[in-house]
Design a protein that fits this description.
Elements lengths: L2 H14 L4 H13 L5 H7 L15 H9 L9 H13 L21 H7 L8 H15 L3 H23 L9 H4 L1 E8 L39 E6 L8 E4 H21 L16 H9 L6 H7 L18 H24 L8
Helix pairs in contact: 1-2, 1-10, 1-12, 2-8, 5-13, 7-8, 7-10, 8-10, 8-13, 10-11
Length: 356
């Protein structure tokens, strides 16, 4: 997903769920910062963090190229691969196939146990890990005092980014693997034609099965990150003729509704459930869907205009990564805590990442 959904969209969901505009703005800042907290940006804007082994929650294109050059990606226990996985799995491609409900049906058998473990890490919404991730934090938030709750808004924002991405990034995994993330026969269904400012380029075929080209949805390009786009493709892990059709507007609408439900649970202390238990009529849903369906590469302005009847955007400034030292301190602490929770979950479910 792009900044428009993670920032403007998250802000709207938080306000609709009952948070004050000021609190919603902090949540939205943290949600977008997940995509901004790269090593390059930390070195540039928050160099003091390097004294405490900072948590990076994204990687830039330049950083990806550096990793590509490293042959260590083929070594499952290398620190290089562990870094890549520690960024992309917890924050962008939350593993959701731990129970193996997706079966590998590719025409060429997977080569190793690593491939089979990577396949278990395919991202999927509504997984057990999603449920535990949100409910665990709802419980923590409910026991915080008022000052602690202000700080914990940053954690909530991080989780909203992860939750939303489970819908956009489903069927891909946050570890480089040809058998899991290779894409064939990519075909855009809607909109036709596509405006020129949309990014459509995919990563090129990689030199090995564990190339960074096969990380996440790289081979599908930017298609999964646009809510207004629908497309179909053949994932390498499915049998011949079995295609996936992705309805962007429907998935992004589900992501927004689930975010609003999760945020409502944080505010009220209700138990987070899948499916949601939401007794109120969603009068805002038509406006949200209208935003998501708008054919624009950047829907930020559309969020602010279309949601005016439900959300006051006067409280939300333009996003800024730099100069937020106080927020960044909390962001680092909570990103570290979230990463440890996800990696611990994978460790306790059969040491899926083969970490010793």
């Amino acid at each position: 997903m792009n900044r428009d959904f993670h920032y403007e969209g998250t802000y709207a969901a938080a306000v609709i769920a009952g948070f004050t505009p000021e609190s919603a703005a902090d949540i939205a800042w943290a949600a977008q910062t997940v995509d901004e907290c790269t090593k390059e940006n930390v070195d540039k804007f928050y160099p003091y963090l390097n004294r405490w082994d900072p948590v990076f929650t994204c990687q830039s294109v330049t950083e990806n190229i550096k990793e590509e050059i490293s042959s260590l990606l083929s070594n499952e226990t290398s620190s290089t691969l562990q870094l890549v996985r520690s960024i992309w799995m917890p924050f962008h491609f939350l593993p959701g196939n731990i129970d193996g409900h997706f079966r590998y049906k590719g025409i060429i058998p997977m080569e190793s146990e690593r491939d089979m473990r990577d396949f278990l890490c395919i991202c999927e919404p509504n997984s057990d890990l999603v449920l535990q991730m949100i409910q665990r934090s709802v419980s923590v938030f409910s026991h915080c005092n008022q000052e602690e709750k202000k700080e914990y808004l940053i954690m909530i924002g991080i989780l909203m980014h992860v939750l939303a991405d489970t819908w956009a990034h489903q069927y891909f995994s946050g570890t480089p693997n040809y058998f899991v993330n290779e894409v064939k026969d990519m075909k855009r269904l809607d909109p036709l034609p596509l405006p020129e400012d949309f990014e459509t380029g995919a990563t090129p075929p990689g030199p090995s099965n564990y190339s960074m080209s096969y990380l996440g949805h790289g081979r599908a390009g930017h298609f999964p990150d646009y809510g207004c786009m629908s497309y179909q493709y053949h994932p390498y892990w499915k049998a011949t003729g079995e295609n996936i059709i992705k309805n962007g507007p429907e998935d992004f609408s589900c992501a927004f509704q689930q975010m609003e439900w999760a945020l409502r649970c944080f505010r009220t202390g209700n138990t987070f459930t899948i499916p949601e238990q939401h007794p109120e009529e969603k009068q805002w849903l038509i406006a949200v869907d209208d935003v998501i369906k708008t054919i624009k590469a950047d829907q930020s302005g559309v969020w602010r205009r279309q949601m005016a009847d439900f959300v006051d955007y006067d409280y939300l400034p333009d996003y800024k990564f730099e100069g937020e030292k106080h927020k960044m301190t909390f962001f680092q602490a909570y990103a570290r805590e979230h990463r440890a929770f996800v990696m611990g979950y994978l460790q306790s479910n059969g040491n899926i990442l083969n970490v010793h």
